[in-house]
């Protein structure tokens, strides 16, 4: 199955926003007017593809990840 050429999160980006992708596949958003970036979608407030995982026992906006050394960490 081919990837969706225009996913939902891309369709609803405000006009002054664009996105980028890091080498490890994480998506970030660029506010062209404010010259700033964020990991969170400007409309939904959620991360799109982070390389980390969300779990139901974490507060909204938090994800669980691991350092390169294997230590568990939490990311907001």
If you had to describe this structure to a student in words, what would you say it looks like?
This protein is mainly beta and 76 residues long. Helices cover 5% and strands 28% of the residues. The protein is built from one helix and five strands, in the order H-E-E-E-E-E. The strands form two sheets. The protein has a three-stranded antiparallel β-sheet, with no helix packed on it. The chain has a two-stranded antiparallel ribbon with strand order 4-5. Strand 2 and strand 3 (36-38) form a beta hairpin. The termini are far apart.
Short description:
This protein is mainly beta and 76 residues long. The chain has 1 helix and 5 strands; from the N terminus they run H-E-E-E-E-E.
Topology diagram in text:
Elements: H1 8-11, E1 17-21, E2 27-31, E3 36-38, E4 63-66, E5 72-75
Antiparallel strand pairs: 1-2, 2-3, 4-5
H/I helix tally: 1
Major beta sheet, strand line-up: 1-2-3
- Bin the helical content: under 10%
- The helix-strand sequence is HEEEEE
Note poorly predicted spans.
Answer: 1-5
Largest sheet: 3 strands, antiparallel
Determine the mean pLDDT: 77
Distance between the termini: 32 Å
| Backbone CA Rg | 14 Å
Task: Please state roughly what percent of the residues sit in beta strands, choosing from under 5%, 5-15%, 15-25%, 25-35%, 35-45% or over 45%.
Answer: 25-35%
Shape: globular
Q: How many individual β-strands?
A: 5
Structure classification: mainly beta
Domain WW: 13-44
Pfam families: WW
Organism: Xenotaenia resolanae
InterPro entries: WW_dom (IPR001202), WW_dom_sf (IPR036020)
């Amino acid at each position: 199955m081919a990837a969706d050429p225009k996913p939902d999160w891309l369709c609803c980006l405000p006009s002054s926003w664009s996105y980028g992708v890091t080498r490890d596949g994480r998506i970030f958003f660029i506010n062209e007017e404010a010259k700033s970036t964020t990991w969170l979608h400007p409309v939904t407030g959620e991360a799109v593809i982070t390389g980390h995982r969300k779990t139901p026992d974490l507060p909204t906006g938090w994800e669980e990840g691991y350092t390169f050394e294997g230590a568990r960490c939490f990311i907001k």
